[in-house]
Amino acid sequence: MSPSENERHHRFLRAFTAQEPVIRAYVRRLLPTRADADDVMQEVSVVLWDKFDSFQADGDFRSWAFGVARYEVLAWLRDKGRDKLVLDETVVTKLADESAEREPHLERQREALEACMQKVPADQRILLMQAYQPQARMQEVAEASGRTSAGFYQWLHRMRRMLMDCIRRALAQEVSS
Amino acid sequence: MKLDMEPLIHAYMDGTISHDEMARLNALLLENAEARREFAELLNMDSALAALAAGWEEEALEQAQTGRSTAPSAHRAPWLMATVCVVILMVAAGWWWQVAHRPFATVESVAGAAAFQPGASLHGELHELHAGTLSLITRRGAHVVIEAPASFRFESAQRLRISRGRLAADVPPSAKGFTVVTPSGDAIDLGTRFGVDVPAQGAAEIHVFQGEVIAKATGARQQQSLRGGDAVTMDQGSSTTRELRNAAFIQPDEVSSLKAGLAAGQRTRAEAALQQLREDPALIALMDFEAEAMPGEGVYRMVQGRWPGSRAPEFVQVGDHLKLDVGGDRSWPQLTLAAWVRIDRLGEPYQSLLHTDGWSKNNPGQVHWMITQEAVMRLALIGNTLAPGADERQGYPDSRTPVLPEQGRWMHVAVVYDSAKKSVRFYLNGRLDKETRQEIAHPARLGPAQIGNWNQRDRKLSGRVDELLILGRAMTDDEVHTLHTAGNPYR
Lengths: 177, 491
Description:
A: mainly alpha; Rna Polymerase Sigma Factor, Chain: A; Arc Repressor Mutant, subunit A; B: alpha+beta; 3 domains; twelve-stranded mixed sheet; 7 helices; 27 strands; elongated
């Protein structure tokens, strides 16, 4: 890479590294599964890099990236929506706008998850992490844990509910303290 | 409504949703804003869980692949290379999760922190460091020095959460992305040396000594890139530029000499020397700042002094100062001033050690003791003049050797004034540095004074003061030497 190319690359990485979790969460909220979100995210990162020249150096990288991500999500839905059960385009548009606006709050929720995870007993935490592995097969994780598939999903839903409650409580305390 | 909808969302996320259920979910989300919020929050958490799990897997893989070479091919299209780099950085900056029993960090060296043993492993537990200084090395090779009082916890080898305390980090390329999380914001390293100070009260500061760090105040949309020499205070969602205090942070090499000092029994020796001074009939004041009661009115932070768990005032902001009022009842033909100080930064115009309030032409002999812009010590008594042939240009007795090399270390400064002999003798770390002769030499006058400032603005000291001695007689060279030797925290 030439020095200027190198510099451009460095600028991109700096902006992208800091915003990647935020963009990923944004994409995730609009798509059915994490695997779908991974697919789209890959595309988004390539487009962001390709179009980085059109991004103003003093601009808001996050807003710009949200715009790109939203476009890629809608394109994906049009493409894949025929074979899969997905959200209506109108719903996605509303979700995209509203959740971008609420991102500061949603980010605090994501941050609060770490502390809430500490409250989960170690064995359950490991199971949860296994279930959330990229390319994890739920059937296998369920079997390994000695549960039926249905029982495993019920457990998973209970964990999600418990963690969501914990996160909301943590944030409510943050506000009142 | 929530009860109706939640199973739909779970089924949607698990990929087990039916056509009918999907239609119901779409209808609900379309018409109900509250439902959309609920939906977004659950998916948002799902994303956060996946991020945690990704880091978790990465560590497991890393464990399996230790030592294996993964040299990248040189024939890749630039965009592919970029994507590869992006992926690597995503992982580095992402969340990590503890796996198995591998420690996130290991204790390298300990100075006065009894609860920690060299070689001890740190996992994800919370640590309280009540006294002393700790030098750690993370699994990825970042060196971190933490000074008490501190409360911290490693969330991964790459993520250190600190709610109180002061740390200096030296991060090699292998640990790039190392992140320090504070209550008021994060510091994300891009291969560098930096310091983070989280005071007991007030906002966290990031100081970059070298390289580059990204500062992200909690709740802020924009992060800020800091380069070597930059410093910010992060407060309520925004970062404000501030002066660099690069020497306020203890570095690894200092930990070892502090440790050696303690091992050699320096602390006991220092206490014995203090006791002896307290019995000196000529003693005007000896401030060791150890009493629970504040030593005087003022604005300053109370931080760790030279010894583990000891106390010293630290002056950080413009206007920080400590008031005292001693020895104003008479004049002092002889005077010795001495202190242990730790200067954070050198700056203009002066760093005040002791400035009496009564400095005026009608009040000859009033004392001003400081470190100048040229980084030398100065003792000014109003009305005094230099003897002919003195080499000082500004009319006041100055020491010769700049304190520059001592910046960022505790050093001992002393000056002995004798109005009858018309002499001013300066000492650095117990050694006579210079004697300056005066032509007119008034007896010294004290009274209301400030440490760390004068006029609350322009003579700000940046750093800590420990053990300030004001003695109404002239100490000999040997006495000053002994004072330094006994009180020296280093070996």
